[in-house]
Request: fold
Amino acid sequence: MTTNILLAGFGGQGILFAGKQLAKTAMYSDLQVSWLPSYGPEMRGGAANCSVIISDEEIGSPLVVTPDLLIAMNLPSYDKFAPNVVPGGTIIYDSTLVSTDRVRDDVKACPIPATGIASENGLDGMANVIILGYLLKITGLFEYDKFLEYMIASIPPTKAALIEKNTKALSLGYNFA
Amino acid sequence: MSKKVLMKGNEAIAEAAIKSGCLHFFGYPITPQTEISEYMAKRMPKVGGLCLQAESEISAINMIMGAAASGSRCLTSSSSPGISLKSEGISYIVGCDLPCVIVNVQRGGPGLGSIQPSQQDYYQATKANGHGDEHVIVLAPNSVQEMAQLTSEAFDLADIYRMPAMILADGSLGQMMEPVDFELGSKREIPEKTWATNGTYGKRKKNIINSLYMDPNELEKSVLARFERYAEVTDKEVKYEEYKCDDADIVIVAYGITSRIAKTAISAARAKGIKVGLLRPITLWPYPKKPLRALADTAKHFLVVEMNMGQMVDDVKVATECKKPVSFFGRTGGVIPAPAEILAEIEKIAGGLN
Amino acid sequence: MVVFDRPKSLSPVPFHYCPGCTHGIVHRLVAEALDELDICGKTVGIAPVGCSVFAYNYWECDMIEAAHGRAPAVATGVKRTHPDNIVFTYQGDGDLAAIGTAETVHVGARGENITIIFINNCIYGMTGGQMAPTTLPGQVTTTSPYGRDRRIQGSPVHVCEMLSTLDGVAYAERVAVNTVPNIKKAKAAIKKAFQNQIDKKGLSIVEVLSTCPTNWGMSPEAALEWVKTDMIPFYPLGVYKDTDVKLLNPTSTKEDK
Reply:
């Protein structure tokens, strides 16, 4: 079983961080995993995206061209990558920033106003973690507790204050209905 | 939790070098390999080592020459345009029989090219890193785990054979993260560096590190001696991976990141009943000629897949003695081929076979 | 009784230099300094490309032959990995001030604790008398056959003056070896440049105005006179920098931890 995930959005939205959390949890779950960022001019402001492949067998190409799961955190990313999602795949998108009528009926579309939820709860800049929480609920990719544990473990001791915020953000996403 | 850590390929090279006893790094920033410099700058002071940013790649490779001449394990890294700048120094280091490890995280070319992954420096790495009759050992990893493991092996090979070893990677391997376990891999016995220029201290005759010969016969002798060593390397140090070749009608030959994309295509082709395998050279120099020659008796067709315009095709033709057709598929300039594109090539070839 | 003997650090082999060339004098001065400071055993010398390309044969210390212009980078590699070694480069004007300018400037900028012996004879000797970065205005060479024209070939590089502006340069002195008193001063400067390294002061460079009778087309005697009449007025002798400031950039990787 292989899951090809593409995460895309603006630079600064924590796209690469979100991908890394998925990759770490996969590694600690003894799964094969690869994480490939877009790099270059586009990462210095503008668009950012990363490919994450999680599998129980050897991973071939690390580049996700046709994702099973797309996380789109802004409209340009949605417009660019939604057409590439495999039929039957899933698109999770930040509906605060992605207002679209281009919805495919052969994929599972899962909007969540992550940026809105973040600012309502004093969690500016943590829409990515809210989306991760929602992703866990929608896909069942990893156990919530396990994911949270590894995410907290990756927060450096000097930034301990972030633990509470991350926990809250993940939970808000997971419990979004 | 396992011993594995999630790391970028570039960082894995740096950490593996330190773990292999390399305490001296000289480099110059260039995308997409700068993480190596950054990692070294952070880690080296903590392990009693040194990371020095040179004023140019030219200077960095010559700092390596000095460090290697005085007996230190040392590393320099760059990406394609920077390797071109280093070529003078590489030739001198070869001419002086000095061991060191050079990393090339390739990007698109020619010229300033692009910063996206490519394999366009195959010729340069395997045929002509610098002027003169020269070779360096070229290792082509295809995963972050191998970035670490082959770096460690490169240091041993360099020291054993007194020649530079190169890690030929590309931007995608440098930038991607995968789990890596640094405890894998074996250590080899390293000969003492009695030739090093680190002071006679009155205890021995002076050592001279030099590549200049006024008598062409003397120079010829030194080149011949070096080529005897090259023959030994070719005999003993070839590394490759065979994947599903036993019953393969079509054998893909691909190295580095391209070999993984090929594997994805192979699975898809086999699901369609096409018997495809992969021969992955891990050492690009020395080249795995023998296994390719053996496959030329069993396979019907070879397909070389690279991120360049077909630089390895001739090596495959020579190795297989042109006994079977050799086709090529590649993308270049920094474009990564998609598994579907490779599958289409496989299907085209399979159609011709039947 | 005074016995004029070969310094122990000088190898007992004949020099390959042309009659009247002053490389031999400078080689001897370096050897005397190594002897007097008793450092030959821990010294590593870096030879250049140019007339002194065979310098690796002439001293008893360990030697490395570098690529053209790269001796300071090679020296950096040795010194940074072996801070206890005494490391020097011996370079000509084309090597140091043309093809290797970046290496020269940055070894100064970094304050590498090494010693540079710089031979300035205003010409490319080994390739047969072409224009050097230090060739004087109006000077005829095979590649400036009508005399160096500043409007076409630019102006000569004043190395000591240029390097003196860098914080990492501890000591820069220009000397000449055209007369006995000047040779004595050159000896003192070279010895000081090595002593500075022992004292970890940073980069020390001694620029030695030297002769090339063959390519200048002069007798050895006339060449010595030309140093006095033409070179020294353009490249004034003296100390351009001499600081007691300790090394900005400790080269030690282990002992300072």
In short: The two ends of chain A are 28 Å apart (CA to CA). Residues 2-112+140-154 of chain A form a domain with the Pyruvate-ferredoxin Oxidoreductase; domain 3 fold (CATH 3.40.920.10).
